[in-house]
Write a structure and sequence with these properties.
Layout: H1 8-16, H2 28-36, E1 45-50, H3 55-68, E2 73-76, E3 88-90, E4 93-94, H4 97-111, H5 118-131, E5 137-141, E6 158-161, H6 169-172, H7 176-183, E7 192-195, H8 202-210, E8 214-217, E9 223-226, E10 231-234, E11 240-243, H9 253-268, H10 275-283, E12 292-295, E13 299-303, H11 308-319, E14 326-330, H12 338-342, E15 349-354, H13 365-372, E16 381-383, H14 387-397, E17 403-407, H15 410-422
Parallel strand pairs: 1-5, 1-6, 2-5, 6-7, 7-8, 13-17, 14-15, 14-17, 15-16
Antiparallel strand pairs: 2-3, 3-4, 9-10, 10-11, 12-13
Helix pairs in contact: 3-9, 3-10, 4-5, 7-8
């Protein structure tokens, strides 16, 4: 029987418990439902983006460049931070509740007795909405892995793989080779696949060769150089551009921008002739929760860093800033390694405030503390049973010229942004 709900929240609450597993790499179910939707095309061109870190940044950069170049662009990303609607955008605008509810009703009617995960429902909703929107481009962010991810049920025209690191080992394997093999699954024969970094794992190269993929990577086929006032990019076909600096923090973001530009050169090199559009596109990139400064006195920086590589990049960014007494609030999901997430920041953090994320997947703060006891003195750690208490305690410990880092997961950042919205009068600068 088809479920009928009036509001988006009702639909989402129901979806949370529809399928027995939150993550289920059996894509036959979603393929079957997708075929029942009779979708002819989600966009004229499809780009899929996989990787351990940097997927969201690459989506945002490519989306902004194409949007400013006057194309109609849809993007699908996950997870969201504040509102579910963030996951599906058209022309850089979040999709509205009504469109989502309409899509869910159609999907629910089509699925019959087939159960779908929360993410699979979202993926199909994006595909359905895109198919009715006459898009020039659809940009799809892989949820997990690539080969068996729900986004990979349709063929893309081009793929980008941002990075390969150790994460989600219970699903993707515990080695770079096994993880790379899963992410290689987004590549398609006779289509270009771009690796954003300079040193692709051997598994990616061998997969590309055996499947006749047109594989290219940074600093060999395309490259960039960063200067104080601008950066320069060179494409595989000889295109050279002088461009404004990115509003995103970290030199590694230029790997993502460079890959996005290379994707555009492959798709339609004429787009690169309008430097004004490109300049506007780069300067208008915004990505919530990626080294985002959301308070000045005291300084508060939020970051969704949730694995070792991203924690190292967070440290590198902080290390380039003015020296300040630095505090940290962290909350993690229970599949993460607290030790490797905290270790990079130990040299600069005065005190840790550890909270328990409000999710059935949240790691208890006492467990996080137990994992890092060999790294951090007991007197430098305070544990709390929820994130709000951790935020509150951190603010009480700080002075106006101090710095607070909040990281560990999308959930952690989301909870802080909600805390900040509802407790503005408690902040020290009010």
């Amino acid at each position: 029987m088809t479920n009928q709900f009036k509001s988006l929240d009702e639909w989402l609450n129901w979806q949370q418990n529809l399928h027995p597993k939150n993550i289920d790499f059996k894509i036959e179910r979603i393929k079957s439902v997708y075929n029942k939707l009779n979708i002819k095309q989600i966009a004229k061109k499809i780009v899929i983006i996989a990787g351990t870190n940097g997927k969201g940044s690459t989506v945002a950069i490519l989306e902004s460049l194409l949007h400013e170049s006057k194309f109609k662009v849809g993007s699908f990303t996950s997870p969201h931070i504040l509102k579910y609607n963030e996951r599906i955008k058209i022309s850089k605008q979040n999709i509205d509740d009504e469109a989502l509810v309409d899509a869910f009703e159609v999907i629910d009617a089509a699925r019959g007795d087939i159960t779908l995960t929360y993410f699979e429902f979202a993926t199909l909703a994006a595909f359905y909405i895109f198919s009715r929107s006459s898009l020039d481009f659809a940009i799809l962010e892989v949820g997990l892995g690539g080969r068996l991810d729900a986004t990979n049920i349709i063929d893309s025209d081009l793929s980008i793989i941002t990075s390969i690191g150790i994460d989600h080992t219970e699903f993707l394997g515990s080695s770079i080779a096994s993880i790379a093999n899963e992410k290689a699954g987004v590549m398609r024969s006779s289509c270009y696949s771009i690796f954003a970094g300079a040193n692709p794992p051997a598994t990616l190269l061998s997969n590309a060769q055996s499947n006749n993929v047109l594989f290219i990577f940074g600093h060999k086929h395309f490259s960039h150089n960063i200067y104080n006032t601008h950066w320069e990019w060179r494409g595989m076909n000889g295109t050279k551009l002088k461009l404004p600096l990115l509003p995103l923090t970290g030199d590694f973001q230029y790997n993502h921008a460079s890959a996005a530009l290379q994707a555009i050169e492959i798709i339609d090199k004429d787009i690169l002739k309008n430097e004004a559009f490109l300049s506007n596109g780069l300067q208008n990139v915004f990505l919530m929760g990626r080294y985002q400064k959301c308070n000045k006195y005291p300084e508060v920086i939020i970051d969704v860093a949730h694995n070792e590589d991203s924690a190292i990049k967070l440290f590198d960014n902080l290390n380039k800033e003015d020296k300040k007494k630095t505090y940290a609030v962290i909350g993690l999901l229970n599949d993460k390694d607290a030790y490797t997430l905290i270790k990079p920041l130990v040299p600069i953090v005065e005190k840790w405030f550890i909270g328990t994320v409000d999710s059935e997947r949240g790691m208890n703060s006492s467990e996080i503390k137990e994992q890092v006891m060999s790294l951090v003195e007991d007197k430098k750690i305070d544990c709390f049973q929820n994130m709000n208490n951790a935020f509150e305690a951190a603010y009480k410990a700080m002075y106006l010229n101090d710095r607070l880092i909040i990281y560990g997961s999308f959930y952690t950042v989301s909870e802080f942004m909600n805390y900040q919205e509802h407790n503005e009068k408690k902040l020290l600068n009010e």
